[in-house]
Amino acid sequence: MEAILHGADAVYIGAPKFSARAAAGNAIEDIESLTKFAHQYHARVYVALNTILSDEELLETEQLIHELYRIGIDALIIQDLGIMQLDLPPIPLHASTQMDNRTVEKAIFLEKAGFSQIVLARELTIGEITKIAAAVSTPLEVFIHGALCVSFSGQCYLSSALNGRSANRGNCSQPCRLPYNLVDSNGTEIVSGKHLLSMKDLSQADNLEELLEVGVSSLKIEGRLKDLSYLKNVVAFYRQKLDKILAKKPELIRASSGKSTFTFTPDLQKSFNRSFTDYFLHNRKEKVWSIDSPKSTGEFVGTVAEVTTRYIRLQSKVKLNNGDGLCFLNHKKELDGIHVNRVEGDLIFPLRIPEIKKGTPIYRNNDHEFEKILSKKTAERKISTQIQLRETSTGFVLKIEDEDGFSTSIDYTATKEIAQKDQTENIKNNLKKTGETIFSVESVDIQFSENLFIPASSLSQWRREITGKLLHTRLENYPREEVAHTPTTHAFPTKEITYLGNVANSKARLFYVQHQAAVKQQAFELEKQSDVPLMFTRHCVKHSMGWCPKDHQEKSPYKEPFFLLHENTKLRLEFDCKECQMKVYKDETVSKERKLH
């Protein structure tokens, strides 16, 4: 609901079960309340039901989908193509990024299969997105902000292989955020204890207009398991950015109604972030890993000028607050924290004086005053209206029309009373007092033949009645999209389906067969494969180390293959330079040596 108030045109939310965040399911009753709230503004609610499913779960899934349709949600975000074989209500389906949507051929297939929206892979370049947008008419959605999975979504089996917690079942243990040692095939340690698979956070804040111009129509903020202050700040930031673009592009129409106003100035640096990247949108041009820590660093505030036993003096132009949380990289290149008890000018008095050197960069990952503001009411969203009050032979007619052209009127039989002095401003001010409703009144047009008096109590009652009736009209006329799901048989782009197809039930298998593909392997979760890639990623350790044969002059002095080591886990890296892709395998050497020992 706060996402809607802060300007979102749509929200996505986990179903009670079977969403890609198993820990973030929501009750049907809560989703129903959200849906009614969103629909007032003609904003949409998309429910994520985007895990792979077992045969035993299909009936429950079908029943759940019908229940979600009954409460009025706008679309389902799905991964398992077996859902296409169920008895579905006429509810739009969105192809989750978990489907690995990164080619023109896949997008065309999904469009022909009846999907109403396609969520593209986060790794795509602007050129790749442009080609897909030119090939299909189905709306395209891209991620513009939030956490990045290092692997192509839906193509990561590392968590499942290491500890049985499947990302495709919404239960990823995030082994990509762990520290690893990088060693070569001779056992030489190249890097020690670094987060070599942990990505920075995504931000396309400077690329929104470009994305819209090439054909993207839905901009998605990753926000699952984030707190309320993060949501408020990030949604408000992108709402303001997008509104500026819409103001100069009359050919673009906003997808929902109402204007959001805020009590704070949004700032992305003040919410959880591992520093930002636009990833591969403009091709590979930077290091995209958050190598030192998977934790939030926040905003840069300055450097250490002096350290004493009582205080730290900062060289900073940023105003710090009592209660702020600061952080820095210590001598081990690990993220360390400072809790600020008191601030006096450029002096900070922390709970403890950490081991820190002069010149160390300092970041603020918890702005106490900013968080205090965000803990209160920070936004309201109002739909603009115009009111007309007109005199009739038997009384008055009150009419209201909103920014979308919805209108309603009420006739009031009343005895007319001549006013002793002009009541125009009093009447206008009363009718503009819309209070806690979702409406704001921009103008009041009074059409009287003479100066009439209407009691304030009557005006207040009429205002409540007319705004209530307009809200009812908006909800009654909510433009809910419904689609007829008809079977299709066009060819799937891949003829043979391996474990990468994530086929976990008979309905998914039937879908592929009907679309001219042969299922050769079940989902990895059902039939673990040995010595196969467990992760496919455009992030490349060799490139980040400066040893890319395409982009760098320097060659690696170490012998491949390279390995990542963490405790008893050993991962082998393979570099596919033709595809500009790194693959990650589980290496069994460690476990075999342990068994022999």
Protein described:
The protein has 597 residues and is α/β, with parallel strands linked by helices. Among the domains are: 297-374, Thrombin, subunit H (Beta Barrel), CATH 2.40.10; 382-476, no CATH class. The chain contains 14 helices and 30 strands. Strands 1, 2, 3, 4, 5, 6, 9, 10 and 12 form a 9-stranded mixed β-sheet that branches. α10 (424-431) crosses α11. The chain is globular. Mean pLDDT is 95; it is low at 591-597.
Features:
single chain, 597 residues, alpha/beta, Thrombin, subunit H, six-stranded antiparallel β-sheet, 14 helices, 26% strand
Give the SSE map:
Layout: H1 2-5, E1 10-14, H2 28-40, E2 44-49, H3 58-70, E3 75-78, E4 93-95, H4 104-113, E5 117-119, H5 126-135, E6 140-146, H6 158-163, E7 180-183, E8 189-194, E9 201-203, H7 208-214, E10 218-221, H8 228-247, E11 259-262, E12 276-277, E13 299-307, E14 312-315, E15 325-329, E16 335-344, E17 347-350, E18 361-366, H9 368-374, E19 379-391, E20 395-402, E21 407-413, E22 417-418, H10 424-431, E23 439-447, E24 452-453, H11 456-476, E25 496-497, H12 506-514, E26 518-519, E27 535-537, H13 541-544, E28 562-566, E29 569-576, E30 581-586, H14 589-596
Parallel strand pairs: 1-2, 2-3, 3-4, 4-5, 5-6, 6-10, 9-12, 19-23, 25-26
Antiparallel strand pairs: 6-9, 7-8, 7-28, 11-19, 13-14, 13-18, 14-17, 15-16, 15-18, 16-17, 19-20, 20-21, 22-24, 27-30, 28-29, 29-30
Helix pairs in contact: 4-5, 10-11
